[in-house]
Amino acid sequence: MDRLYFGRAAVIGSGVSGYWASRLLLDYGNRVSIYDDRVFRHPISIHGIPVIHPARGQDYGRFDVVVPSPGVPRSFLERIRVPLISEVELGYRKLNREESFLFGITGTNGKTTVTTLINHLLQREGAVMAGNVGRPLSSVKIDRGVFVLELSSFQLAINRRMRFDVGILLNISEDHLDWHGDMEHYISSKLRLFSSMKQTDSAVLNMDDPIVIQRTVNVRGRKFYFSLENTSADAYWVSDILFIMGEEIFNLKMLPEASRRMFSMIHNRYNLLASALAIYLFFMSRGVDPAEEVRNRLLSYLPSYTFAPHRLQYVGEINGVEFFNDSKATNPHAVLHALRTFERCILIMAGLTKGSDLSVLREEIERRVSHLIAIGGMCRSLREHGFSPLCVDNLEEAVEVALNLSRGEPVLFSPGGSSFDMFRNYAHRGEEFVEAFHRLKELN
Questions:
Q1: Considering 32, 57, 85, which residue would you say is the last residue of a domain?
Q2: In sequence order, what are the beta bridge partners of 332?
Q3: Is residue 58 part of a domain?
Q4: Are residues 46 and 64 in the same domain?
C-alpha cells in the first residue's frame, strides 16, 4: 500500500495519462486534485473530481506528490518543489516486481517498432505492452507477468525507481531540445533507464552509436551489444543472416517477400537485432535454450508482424513511381535513417524543427536526393541551414510536384520536424499524405 499512498496528490493533465494516474491514486486512498491548462467549453470532471484551470500558477507546495502528463514543459516542472512521478512509474509501483520480467525500451528512433516487435514475439507469454505506446501502465489490471514498456525522454527525466530486467538503448541523437533545453539534459534523461539497474540486469546497447557507447561506460549490469558494422558484437548481421553470440539464428530469405523487404531496410535491421537480442536474454533467464527459442519465435511470428503506419510505410505507386510515408520521422536523424534506405529519391520535408540542427542532413541529401521539397515553415528552416528546397504550401501540392519531377525515383515523405504547425500529430499528418497520394492516383 505504501508504494502508492502519498497523501495529497496533484495530477497535471486530464488526458488518457492523467485519467488513469488519478484513478490509480484514488484506488490507493490518495486525495487527488486534477489540473489542466487547456480551456474546455464546459466544466469537466474526472472520477467525480473537477478539473481545475489553469495548471500554471497553482500552489503545488501543499501536495505530497505531483504527477505531470508527458510533455508538460520542463520550465514548469522545475518550479515545483515536491516529488514528481510519472504515470508509468505509478503503474510500475503496482507491480509484483519479483514475479515480473520488464523490458524498458528507449532511444531517439525505433522505440515503437522494437517495443511492438518484442511484444509480438512474446505473445505466448502473454506479454503486456504499455508506456509510451499501447496502454498506460497504470491502467493495466494484472500485477505480474512480462511487461514491454516504451519510454520517452519525458517519462525517464523524472524516473525515480523503475528498474528493468532488460533495458534497451537504441540510439541517441538530437530531439526534443525545445523541452530539454540542451543535449546534455536529453542524454541524461535517456540514461535514467539504467539508474536503478542491478548487476544481474542486462543493458542492450547499439555498438554503432558513439554517444551510446561513450555514455554507458558506467552502467551497472551486464552489457550486450548489437551492430551492423562489427561482428564482435553480441548480435550482428552477415549479409541476410542474423547471428547472436556467434550462432546463426535467422535468415531474412525465409520471410515472405513483403516482410523481407521491410526487415531488409537498414533501420529495421537494427530494430530486429535489438529485439532478437533482448528476447534471447529473456529466454536465457528462463533456463531454456535461448538460440532455439529465438529461432522458433522469429520463424513463427515475424511473417505476421505488422509494421506501424507512418514509419517508412509503403503507400503505393503511380506510373511506376513508389511513395513512402515516414511521417513519424520528427527529427533530422530519423530522416537520415530513412534516406539511407534509398539510392536516390525525392524527399518531402515539413514541420517544426524543435531546435534541431538540419545541417546533419547535408551529406546524405547531396548523395541521395534528386529534389528536395519543403512544406510551410520547414522551407525557412532548410534555407537557414543552407539548403535550397522547392517550397510548396501543402501536402497535396507536394505530392503532385514530386510525381511530376520524378524520373523513376521513389518519393519519400520524411518530415524531419514535429507536426504541430499544420496537423494534430504525426499520425494525422501521415494519414493526410496517404490521402493526398490516393487522390492523385485517381487522376492518373
A1: 85
A2: none
A3: yes
A4: yes
Are β-strands 235-238 and 241-244 bridged in parallel, bridged antiparallel, or unpaired? antiparallel
CATH number of the domain within which 397 lies:
3.90.190.20
DSSP string, 109-154: SSHHHHHHHHHHHTGGGT-EEEESSSB-GGG----SEEEEEE--HH
Each residue of 310-325: b (16+ CB within 10 Å) or e? Answer: bbbbebeebeebbbbb
Strand-by-strand arrangement of the 321-325 sheet: 313-318, 321-325, 411-416, 345-350, 369-375, 390-392
What the block records as the C-alpha cell of 46 is: 474526472
The closest alpha carbon to 395, from 352, 436, 346, belongs to 436
d(CA 64, CA 285): 38
Which residues is 392 bridged to in the sheet?
A: 375
| Residues 47 and 25: beta-carbon distance below 8 Å | no
Nearest to 323 by CA among 340, 348, 299: 348
CA dist., res. 410 & res. 346, Å (int): 6
Grid cell locating 330: 520528427
Residues 226 and 358 occupy one common structural domain: no
Name the grid cell of 226: 548489437
Residues 307-340 have pLDDT tens digits of 888 989 989 999 999 999 999 999 898 899 899 8
Q: Is 418 part of any domain?
A: yes
In the chain, what percentage of residues exceed pLDDT 70?
100
Whether residue 208 sits in one domain with residue 181: yes
Any domain includes 1: no
Q: Domain check: are 133 and 165 in the same one?
A: yes
In this structure, the answer to whether residues 193 and 339 fall within a common structural domain is no
Residue 54: give the domain boundaries.
8-85
| Predicted confidence (pLDDT) per residue in 374-397, tens digit | 998 999 999 999 999 999 999 999
Q: Name the pTM for this structure.
A: 0.86
Indicate the residue among 256, 275, 304 that finishes a domain. 304
Distances in Å between the Cα of 31 and the Cα atoms of 36, 41, 88, 90, 318 are 17, 26, 19, 15, 59
d(C-alpha 165, C-alpha 197), whole Å? 8
User: At 416, which helix (H) or strand (E)?
Assistant: strand 411-416
Residues 331 and 264 in one domain: no
Burial of 211 (0-12, 13-18, 19+ CB in 10 A): middle
Residues 197, 292 share a domain: yes
